[in-house]
Amino acid sequence: MQDAAPDLNRRRLCRGLLAGLALPVMVPLAACGDLAAGATGQSGGGLGIGPGGGAAALLLPLTGTNAALGQNMARAASLAALGRPEAGAPKAYDTGDTAEGAAAAAGAALKAGARLLMGPLRADQTPSVLAVAGKVPVVTFSNDDTLAAQGAFVMGVTPAQSVSAMFSYARAQGLTRIAVVARDGAAGEATVAAAERLAVLGGITLSAALLRDPGQGGLTRALRAAGGGDLPQAVFLPDGGAVLAGFAAGLAGSGVQLMGSVQWGAGEVAGNGDLAGAWFAAPPPDLFLPFADRFVAGFGEEPGVVAAIGHDAALIAIGLGDARSLNRKGLTRVAGFTGVLGGFRFQPDGRCQRDLAVLAVEAGQIVVLAEVAGT
Fold first, then answer.
1. Pairing of strands 91-94, 177-182
2. Is-contact 142 121, C-beta < 8 A?
3. 36-50, 183-197, 302-316: which has the minimum mean pLDDT?
């Protein structure tokens, strides 16, 4: 499953395309800005250790192919301690690109006394960290929900979270016959599995679940065949980029309500006439945009949702450190947490519930319709 979403120039969107709107606007937090190309690979990223965050560790790719992501997560984590120098952000340990590197980083953190491991970024590195963690909780930054069954807490923004938000909102609008159309692959399979599970719980009839290539053609015909001759009331399209454009073109003029996930980029959907009137899920804007402004002021570039996860991980570490609750009980507290990506709660089984906003494409602009609590 992909652990990161497409990038988007937030500054251009917010100060250009969406300037002057009367309604609240935002960009999709799954894709907010370009990552640094020249980040250094120094372990720790200059982050301090304090009484709040010092007993937790961040496991990040500070070198290797994902170094820019890891460095921006470390930078964002440092912002979590602003105004509280006595707290400090958790120290970052370099995982590099490999499972062995992630295990070594976890081992070094444990040797230094870490009681909470936050990371790694990639799904394929997480089992190696779990193998050395013992009873120390592991909060992976991956968006692969299956890692919860292996013992990790999953902090990445998952397909199930987008499905939950959009199904809840659709039902509130009277739409109960929904189809899912996604690219064939791990992410598409995860979306279909989540849709099948959540449809039963939410009173939704899943009329079709199609995994296909967007260039295959005959999409409305396939949906009619799966629905006994009728089109669904709405179609959930989780993919972004060219895949989304292909599926949207295949549904143009069908009259069905199009819905999407945090993988959608506001720049691409606002300018696509085939997506006029579409709804999509994204983290709430009111908390993210002030964080993004602080990040730009401090580092001269735009953050993305992955960087924001690093910030929220540091908030968890500092808060639970202050409460002397760097453990499973602290992670699963009923109140949950509020970060720059909104409210979220870890369940005892390791999965995460997230509160998401529902955005709409209206007259080439992006507006906020509602906020939906995670279920």
1. unpaired
2. yes
3. 36-50
